[in-house]
Backbone:
């Protein structure tokens, strides 16, 4: 799976209330949630996510609540991959379960806002085409690999149960 | 080599000895979801096409978040879950107003020591106080557990927090976990298991242990756990002998071990806008307060309300302060009524409302406006968490929250008693 895009960068500890505030949780409508994604963080969002498929973040991205709305909102806003120094564990699961790539890269600070970045999870590589730098990323292991390969957890369960 | 209590439980449920960092599949004993995460879980479960949940008796649905239904959308979410329960033969539906899931489920003694609980709510970790493995997941993960009865987990690193010393009069489980967050930060237990032990923990009642485990997720932990002892056994009405396996071996190894001496520790308060941004209450006496909330899955239990009532008895809250108590369950509410706590609150000018998660996540029932300062006994003070993005939330124990309501500024209980 490969994604290439200009990137937008956010900092450490971006919590789920920043990604999608509690007042919007009555809705499960992806388009509605996308209209409010990251607005808890800054008024530049969701506007600055237009035509962007890769979001870069620091440590502990997605900390806080288990709300899957956070991953759904990012996905619906056109984000296909989040590259972060580290992820909060529930957000990581929610992302891969809903077909949003979550890529851990300690050197994420070497990707700057506006850089042209390519992520390829099959060959475990992130390329910053703006600087020419290439980074290795760990391979997804075990069940995680199978869920990513299936494109999400619903399809994984369907395959596993022969549906 | 010895094992920790978490490693013992996971090894048994994985059917083999587990190693830190490996991904294993574990059988799940209990699941829970609520009216915010549940409707998505139902939709995704239906898309999986398996038809029936693996075991309807292991599924709990708790209508506690946007309830009593705050609007039509919330009412519809509850209807969707009730309908799903009827179709699937799920009898364990806790309807609107019955209580907050992490208060209700242990209170009902449904979850048992040594078991594995997965919940579509991050504060599922609360139940680790019952010497079981409990962790939070999202909606689709929960739907997959309903389909398969199992899930994957990366075996967590082991961290031990050993509390010793003399517990000061007004210190509570909340202060202990806030102090831990102060020491290690909001990423300090990233993906790890936090085990709480020591002479101080042995003397803590179950309510305080729930609070302690509840906020382990705020340090990034996968689970929080208190090994079984006489207090656990008494709570479940069993002999301590029955739970003797549910402790860590003497020679168990930990990636990290912290010793905490609580002697002389002042009450702890998390200041805006991170649960890891913790100070002594005495450093905050100039902070003026607009709202006080006492309740939530962190501090909505009977002993929490007793601590608040003890501070408020015979006093009035300060002019200009809005104070709200939401008991964590209908049972807690009823008991608080019988013990005269509700009367104490009402006489003090505090509003008492139905059990609900509403205020904690800025959903309903006392949402904070721009610039308002809130002292809350809940678990998160992120920007915008309890309402407007410019509201300022301070997290504290019920006793500190009650004292702050009386003085109108952040206060230690000792200031008003």
Residues:
């Amino acid at each position: 799976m490969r994604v290439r895009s200009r990137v937008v960068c956010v900092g450490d500890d971006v919590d789920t209330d920043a990604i999608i505030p509690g007042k919007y949780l009555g809705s499960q409508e992806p388009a509605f949630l996308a209209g409010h994604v990251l607005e808890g963080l800054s008024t530049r969002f969701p506007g600055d996510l237009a035509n962007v498929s890769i979001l870069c973040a620091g440590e502990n991205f997605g900390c806080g609540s288990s709300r899957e709305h956070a991953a759904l909102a990012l996905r619906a806003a056109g984000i296909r991959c989040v590259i972060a120094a580290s992820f909060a564990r529930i957000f990581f699961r929610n992302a891969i379960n809903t077909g949003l790539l979550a890529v851990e890269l300690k050197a994420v600070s070497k990707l700057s806002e506006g850089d042209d970045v390519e992520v390829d999870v099959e060959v475990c590589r992130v390329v910053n085409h703006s600087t020419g730098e290439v980074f290795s990323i760990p391979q997804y292991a075990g069940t995680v690999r199978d869920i990513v390969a299936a494109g999400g957890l619903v399809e994984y369960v369907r395959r596993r149960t022969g549906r | 080599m010895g094992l920790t209590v978490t490693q013992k439980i996971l090894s048994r449920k994985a059917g083999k000895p587990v190693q830190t960092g490996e991904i294993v599949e574990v059988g799940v004993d209990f699941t829970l979801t609520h009216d915010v995460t549940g409707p998505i879980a139902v939709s995704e479960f239906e898309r999986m096409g398996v038809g029936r949940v693996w075991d309807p008796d292991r599924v709990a649905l708790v209508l506690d978040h946007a309830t009593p239904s705050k609007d039509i959308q919330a009412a519809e979410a509850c209807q969707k879950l009730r309908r799903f329960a009827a179709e699937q033969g799920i009898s364990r539906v806790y309807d609107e107003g019955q209580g907050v899931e992490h208060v209700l489920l242990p209170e009902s003694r449904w979850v048992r020591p040594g078991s594995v609980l997965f919940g579509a709510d991050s504060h599922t970790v609360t139940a680790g106080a019952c010497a079981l493995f409990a962790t939070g997941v999202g909606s689709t993960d929960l739907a997959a557990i309903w389909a398969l009865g199992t899930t994957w987990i990366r075996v967590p690193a082991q961290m031990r927090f050993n509390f010793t010393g003399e517990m000061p009069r007004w210190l509570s489980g909340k202060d202990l976990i806030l102090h831990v967050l102060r020491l290690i930060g909001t990423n300090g237990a990233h993906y790890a298991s936090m085990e709480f032990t020591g002479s101080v923990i042995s003397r803590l009642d179950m309510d305080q242990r729930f609070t302690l485990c509840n906020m382990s997720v705020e340090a990034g932990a996968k689970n929080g756990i208190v090994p079984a002892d006489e207090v656990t056994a008494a709570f479940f009405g069993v002999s301590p002998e029955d739970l003797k396996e549910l402790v860590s071996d003497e020679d168990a190894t930990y990636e990290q071990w912290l010793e905490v001496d609580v002697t002389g520790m002042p009450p702890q308060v998390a200041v805006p806008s991170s649960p890891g941004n913790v100070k002594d209450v005495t450093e905050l006496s100039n902070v003026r307060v607009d709202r006080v909330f006492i309740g939530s899955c962190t501090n909505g239990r009977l002993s929490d309300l007793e601590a608040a009532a003890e501070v408020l008895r015979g006093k009035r809250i300060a002019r200009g302060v809005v104070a709200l108590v939401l008991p964590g369950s209908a049972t807690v509410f009823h008991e608080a009524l019988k013990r005269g706590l509700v009367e104490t609150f009402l006489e003090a000018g505090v509003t008492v409302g139905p059990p609900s998660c509403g205020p904690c996540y800025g959903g309903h029932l006392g949402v904070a406006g721009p610039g308002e300062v809130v002292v809350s006994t809940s678990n998160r003070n992120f920007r915008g968490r309890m309402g407007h993005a410019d509201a300022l939330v301070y997290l504290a124990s019920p006793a500190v929250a009650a004292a702050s309501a009386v003085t109108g500024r952040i206060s230690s209980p000792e200031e008003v008693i």
